[in-house]
Amino acid sequence: MSILIAFLSLAVERALGYPDWLFNAIGHPVTWIGRLISFLDRRLNRATDSDELRRRRGVQALLVILLVPGLIGLALHVLLWMMFPTGLVIAAILGSSLLSQKSLAEHVEEVADALETGGLTLGRIAVSRIVGRDPEKLDKAGVARAAIESLAENFSDGIVAPAFWIGIGGLGGGAAYKAANTADSMIGHKTPQYEAFGRAAARFDDLINLPASRLTGLLIVLAAFLVPGASPRKAWLVMRRDARKHRSPNAGWPEAAMAGALGLSLAGPRSYGGEVVEDAFMGEGGRREAESTDIRQALKLYRVADWLLLGLFAILSAIVIYLTILISGHGASAL
């Protein structure tokens, strides 16, 4: 059932997204998880405590953050399994809330639209909605690069990884992944406030994103075969050569693949909260500056790669159904 839920969740979310009226009415799983994380942060992360105590409390907080959504998801999964096949449809709708295919494409496309219609000022405003770096430090090429990097990284974190963990652990696995990823984004920072308390969340997020980040890079390489103007060869070579240069053990894989496919240089030094983070460049763009047209080309690669992901889960679902029928048939014959 988990593989089928992952496949159907991808299909539902790609078609419908998460409706604004539903968000306005009840919020979103990420906002619910965010409230839990904020509560634990306020209660357990005290500046007067030692780093060792804050690290221990960070582990305790992470366990709560994982267990609460994970157990709720598991309970729903078991309940809906008992309602099969109607429960499968409901589970797919619930699982779709853990994905972000439609919204990711929309937000990145807004950056390209803003650059083309309003120039740098509107481009900075649009990109500030999807990245954490200082927008006022970005020129037009920097805005375009930031949008492309966000598209590549969030394809992994926001789509491939949750689909992977839904496929492995059903609604419980998907909810626990989303909780861990949200915790990393909220408290997994190397700042005086969170370096100790958020250490466990950051390291755990790195671990659980390992398989999805590699799969995402491969999907982008394969997509480059199908998108005119993209280079699958460079996507593969740059990913193999440059992915490990990134300061993140996971983000480099999809970003390097995208850089190679587009013929750009991505990553490099970036400014967050007034502090410059040094990072190696990935890709072979040389002096060529990224443009809004590169954002649109990246979106083409993303959409094709997303279809490939959907196709992969469709194949896995077909295999599961076939094996289930085969095993059921053997069981009936034995009786």
TrEMBL record:
<keyword id="KW-0169">Cobalamin biosynthesis</keyword>
<keyword id="KW-0812">Transmembrane</keyword>
<keyword id="KW-1133">Transmembrane helix</keyword>
<feature type="transmembrane region" description="Helical">
    <location>
        <begin position="307"/>
        <end position="327"/>
    </location>
</feature>
<feature type="transmembrane region" description="Helical">
    <location>
        <begin position="61"/>
        <end position="94"/>
    </location>
</feature>
<feature type="transmembrane region" description="Helical">
    <location>
        <begin position="212"/>
        <end position="231"/>
    </location>
</feature>
<dbReference type="Pfam" id="PF03186">
    <property type="entry name" value="CobD_Cbib"/>
</dbReference>
<dbReference type="InterPro" id="IPR004485">
    <property type="entry name" value="Cobalamin_biosynth_CobD/CbiB"/>
</dbReference>
<protein>
    <recommendedName>
        <fullName>Cobalamin biosynthesis protein CobD</fullName>
    </recommendedName>
</protein>
<keyword id="KW-1003">Cell membrane</keyword>
<keyword id="KW-0472">Membrane</keyword>
<comment type="pathway">
    <text>Cofactor biosynthesis; adenosylcobalamin biosynthesis.</text>
</comment>
<comment type="similarity">
    <text>Belongs to the CobD/CbiB family.</text>
</comment>
<comment type="function">
    <text>Converts cobyric acid to cobinamide by the addition of aminopropanol on the F carboxylic group.</text>
</comment>
